Amino acid sequence: MTRQQKWWRKSGMALLIASLMVSVWPGIAAALTAEAHDVHTDSTTQGNWVGAYGAEGYVLPFFSSNRSTEGRDDPPAADVALLPAYVDSYSKSGNVSYWQSNPTGLNSLQLPDASGRKRIAVYTGGSFTYSFQLNDSAQHLFSVFSTDYGAGASEIVRFEILDTNNQVLESREVGAVANGKYVSFYVQGSFKLKVTKVSGTRAFAQGFFFDAPVPLTAAGLTVTPLPGRDLELEWSDSASGSVAILRKIQGEADFVKIAETASGVDSYIDENAMPGTEYTYALQSISGTLYSLPSAAVSYVTASYDPTSLAWVQAPYSVAAPGQPVELTAVLTDEHEDPIAGYTVKFELEGEYVGTYIDPVIGEAETDGSGTASLVYTPPYAGEFGIRAWTEPNDVDLLDRAEAVTALDVLTPEWELEPLLLRATDAVKPGTLVQVSGHAMQADDWDDVKAVIEPLASAGPTPSVGAVELDIIQKDELRGQFMQMLLPSTISPGSYRLWVSNAQGWSAPFDLNTPRPLFLSDYEAFEGLSIDVSGRNFQAREFDAEEETKVRLDNGTNAYEVPVTELTPYSLRFVVEDVPLGEYEVRVSNDGGQTWSAVQSGQTLTVVSPGEDPLGLGVAWADHFDWDNVLDVTDYGALADDGIDDTTAIQAAIAAAKSDGGGVVYLPTGTFHASIVQLPSEIVLMGDGPDSTMLYHIGGKANFIQAAGDGKTEGRTGIAKIGIRAADDAMYPDAFIWLGHDWGAAVDDMTKRTASEMFVVETSIEYPVLDPVDTSQGSGRGQGMLAIGDERLIIKDNRMIGWVAQYNRIYMNRYVQSSGNYLEYSYSQMPITADYTFIRDNEFVMRGEMDVQVHGISIKSNSHVENNIVRTTGASLKTTYNNDGESIMAEMPGAYFSVGEVLGATADTITLAPTQPLPEPITLRRGTLQIVIVDGTGLGQYREVQYTSGTTYTLMEEWDVVPDRTSKFSLIAPNDHITVYRNELTDNQRGVWLYGNAIDAVVVDNTLTNTDGIYIASTGAVQTGRYTPTYFVNVKGNQLLGTPGTGHASGIIAVSNRKNVGGLFYATGVYGIEIRDNYLYGSQEPISTPRHQKFSGIVSSAATLSSDGNPVFTPEDRDNLNVLIENNQLEQMADGLVLMSGLYGHTALGNQFTDVLREVYEPFGQDTSHLLELPGAFADRRAPYWPTDSELEIGLSASDEAELSWDPAEDIVGVTHYRIYRDDVLLDTVPATATDYVTAPLPTGATYRFQVSALDAAGNESYSVLSGRVEL
User: Fold this and answer.
1) How many domains does the chain have?
2) How crowded is residue 333: how many other Cβ atoms within 10 Å of its Cβ?
3) Cβ(160)–Cβ(170) below 8 Å
């Protein structure tokens, strides 16, 4: 017998030898030099090892690490160890590393004094070894703890105990370590522990523990048969302790723990043993979490019954579709092939997901006189299954059980209809590529697949004989889910109707270039107020047409056109003017009013009676405050500039205003002091201006100005025109401003949020920005502002400067506006979780000098980010990798819940087979719960859902294409409808990062200087329920200039990964990406840093970053799918286009390379990316645009001449001219070298409106203009 054998798991003579060894173990121990035996795996203790393991000693690798941010130390942190007296020393070798992170959970190991926990992942991508030198020959209990913290990185890990000659003494493989597992061995003599990754991406081992052996006190095991095929086990236990019962049934390789008895119990009945089968049992004594070696094994063979057999009458079975019945019939006979009547035959389903998400029970039937049992089964789901029929042993007739298995194939019905078009490129021009996503755009004969267009104005529901057929450049030959076409350069610009055919006929039409208004900035307005709209295709000029953009309000009976005051291709602003009171649908036209599109979000706008808005908040709810009731704090005892605490007086004024039903608490010019200011609802705290009224904090580390009473739950509080300071730079409040709910349930559960209608306007907060503040204690952190509520928050025209003086957390559900703010800070982040968020015209300055974690703008779903400046000072000092530095980001933590296969679906339901049990109930921090189809039928569709039962959800809107058994899903709260337009990003480590869950996003006309560019990511850890797709992203017209330091990269990268899938394709992570008209200037230096992107240029990467090792690629892989790379300029780079494997449907056209060493680089070998490169030169199709904060200034000369000056425009090629308009009539054209202009003398008594547009050499005119007025 070798030491590798599990000596109590063998039968026959080996088992007898094992029994003898157990009985004489103490007598032979001293003669052995090294032994090891695997005795137990503990899945329940998790990280709570103190008092459970390690009573004699422990080793916690790298546990002295005490970082404030995620990462590892350099040099590596020391272990924390308390060695037993019998362990002289230990050492480590091999590929072992660690990473400290937060938050900690129950699967994080306790500190040795149990005062807290640390989450330190000790891991290897291959193997590592710990060697322990022992100075005795006694036996000891040794345990190792392993967890991947739920990341799904560890699928199977092998723990081997080796002797000093590296001979394997014992080996154990374990999986599913998310919650943590302890694997325990008995060891004797010096030994080594080898930890090896078997499957997954990493193997983990976070702690090693030594304990005294548990004596085996259970002995004398006997097995006695009882009536009814039960077996009674009895034993004696000198300690009367708990006992584990192990069993191995004939044909099984290993013992399995089947029961654990309570203390003092010395018997156990194993019920319903099978006839003619050997059962082998052993015992282990238990002490807390520790187990003894097993006892001597005892076997028993049950009596045999006469054989019977079952046979299928018809097999295998096949059904054309789920929901169709099938009759199952089996015949039961005895050993003489005579029928057996009156017996119950049970039918059970077998196969994937059966018993977990599919009910295995089909039913039962009684055999008739011919031995036949029959029933009708209606399978609910498609798939390949087995059907098992069986009978139980009959203890009266002494007949043995019988069993028969056959196959059941439930087919998925074929699509036998015309194609269905789901989505197409926005703002398409003649001569450019257009992509379409949909279903059934394929046929057996590809000549049946065609695409045609007609001008929308004259098109009908089906194509006419005059329809123009398009060149199909690339099609989805595998599944017919996308198509790429080239629009003829000879057609006229404008809106078109598109059809695609297959063998069944033409699809329903899909309209190109019509407006797509996505969402509104508010749902109420009164006369004279403006509403912002975020969307796509707002300006016909973007696709070279000239028609006017219009907005109208439609109540179903009448429609009222309203003035558009600001317009870009992605946003517009209209003013409510001459519209009767009532509720309206907002509609947008970009063709002069011929076709209209409603707001996609379903929002409506209610026009309400005019009200007061003295602060210019620009919202109807400003009238919900009582502006006329003004209470001066000096009337309640406050005295400006006296240096005395004014808290009592300020609170008295607030109390008086509250008792009046609300009002304005006024702080006049001067300096006031308070320890705390508590705001109930209906209260506005207002001064004379942030430089005139100063309010100093003189309290402790709690919040300064905060919601109180019903202000926490109802909101309706505001702060305006106040300068807020700390009187003592050694004592900051936790937050200078805290509106809405307290930190608690409302942070993570958006349904708990009720506070609404809050604002902070024209207020300043200033304290030293480069002096670190201790933020680890949960108080005194100096946070600028926090708000937790339901809807309607305005942050406008504020100045906030300090270590963490920004709005540090904004947890709102809907309607947030941030505009005109200047924020300067060194630490932390500023997420806004609200839908219908507009972030415009701000400047955010991140101070990099202190080299700590800091982030820029953070957004979620339905967010519009336009005309902001985000920059970093001291960028050369910002060198530490803190997974930070983003200029603008959309993150998804807490917004991914499940991934897996679709079992079945109807028009408005879906039933899932998740890789992990659904985490119901799901609590959302923001957004909506949606299911995205990430593979198979219905790819790219996403719908809001509500949980029904089991694994079934109900849709809020029906599917266009019903998913089926070929489909995979991801259950997420998506970051959909994101617009990042015309922002200026400078010296930030990272540029625009869409981390995942981003759907229908645009990143357009931004200038990124010395950043690492634009990152479009999909991530997944399939076996832990995480898959974050990124679909339908348009990256267009951006300028990426320079890199964030020598040797770094700057590019546009679309990346997906394969994690916990054995390196095989699982689903599409990146889909429908368009990268057009961008200018990139980077670096030719090699890149080898983890802090930034690995490549400059334009990158499509699959299965390489944070993925399983050794990916397996096939031509059918679709990790990154349907990607257009068109008309980009790339200069000064090592690589232009970098394309991995795992890609499908990538097309490049008209890209220009200047001083690029490799224009196309395929790391896995030539043609492995399957890139389609079309012939064609670069063409300047993108219009010039105005940088952030561009203005037209107008003055008057003494002779009534208008003197115009403006900021220079930008263009990816170059601006050549400016056009000057007066009252919409072209006045003059000047060269680009001129940024000023003087008109002829103007007649007096009139108001004149001037506009300036920019042109490039290709004749493209800027989509927006700079405008201003002058009155004579």
Assistant:
1) 9
2) 18
3) yes
Pairing of strands 109-110, 1070-1076: unpaired
Assign residue 438 the CATH number of its domain: 2.60.40.10
Helices and strands counted in the chain (H then E):
4, 105
Question: Residue 304's CB: how many other CB atoms inside 10 A?
Answer: 11
Answer yes or no: is 1181 within a domain.
no
Q: What was the pLDDT predicted at 153?
A: 64
- Return the pLDDT at 101: 85
More confident residue, 15 or 900: 900
Q: Which CATH number belongs to the domain containing residue 919 in this structure?
A: 2.40.30
- The β-bridge partners of 531 are 574
Q: Nearest to residue 1188, comparing CAs of 885, 1034, 886, 986?
A: 986
Query: Could you tell me if 229 and 331 lie in one domain?
Result: no
Mind listing the pLDDT tens digit for each residue in 1074-1124?
A: 999 999 998 888 765 544 566 789 999 998 877 777 889 999 999 999 999
Per-position DSSP letters for 850-862, written without gaps between them = T---EEEEEE-SS
Dist. CA 69–CA 828, nearest whole Å = 11
Are 632 and 726 contained in the same domain?
Answer: yes
Whether 980 is in a domain gets the answer: yes
Rounded Cα gap, residues 970 and 865, in angstroms:
27
Q: Terminal CA-to-CA distance of the chain, rounded, Å?
A: 108
pLDDT in tens, 497-524: 999 999 999 999 999 999 999 999 999 9
Residue 624, Cβ density class (10 Å: 0-12 exposed, 13-18 middle, ≥19 buried) = middle
Q: Are residues 1241 and 1221 in the same domain?
A: yes
- The single-letter code of the amino acid at 462 is T
Three-state DSSP class for 448? helix
d(CA 767, CA 764): 10
Please check whether residue 696 is in contact with residue 672, taking contact to mean a CB–CB distance below 8 angstroms: yes
Q: Which element (helix H / strand E) includes 655? A: helix 647-659
One DSSP character per residue, 1038-1103 reads: -EEES-SSTT---EEEEEE---SSTTS--S-SEEEEEEES-EEE---S----TTS-S-SEEEEEES
**Position 864: which residue type?**
H
Pick the last residue of a domain from 300, 320, 353: 300
**Mean pLDDT score across all residues of the chain:** 94
- In a domain, residue 417? The reply is no
Rounded distance between C-alpha atoms, residue 180 and residue 102, angstroms:
16
Q: Is residue 957 within 8 Å of residue 945, measured between CB atoms?
A: no
Asked, for residue 418, whether it belongs to a domain, the answer is no
Q: What's the mean pLDDT in 942-954?
A: 97
What the block records as the tokens of 615 is 């602060």
Neighbour-count burial for 148-182, b at 16+ CB within 10 Å, e otherwise: bbbbbbbbebbbbbbbeeeeebbbbebeebbbbbb
pLDDT tens-digit map of 694-742: 999 999 999 999 999 999 999 999 999 999 999 999 999 999 999 999 9
CA proximity to 969, closest of 1057, 905, 922, 1054: 905
pLDDT for res 1090 = 47
Same domain, 433 and 557: no
pLDDT, residue 720, reads 99
Q: Are 545 and 459 in contact (CB under 8 A)?
A: no
Q: What is the pLDDT of residue 1212?
A: 86
Question: If phi over 0 gives left and psi between -120 and 50 gives alpha, with beta otherwise, what is residue 609?
Answer: beta
Q: Are 1115 and 1047 found together in one domain? A: yes
Are 952 and 860 part of one and the same domain?
no
**pLDDT value of position 776:** 76
pLDDT digits (tens, 9 = 90+) for 307-343: 999 999 988 999 999 999 999 999 999 999 999 999 9
Give me the phi and psi of 648, to 5 degrees please.
-60, -40
**Are 589 and 645 members of one domain?**
no
Range of the domain at 595: 516-610
Q: Which of 388, 410, 432 is the last residue of a domain?
A: 410
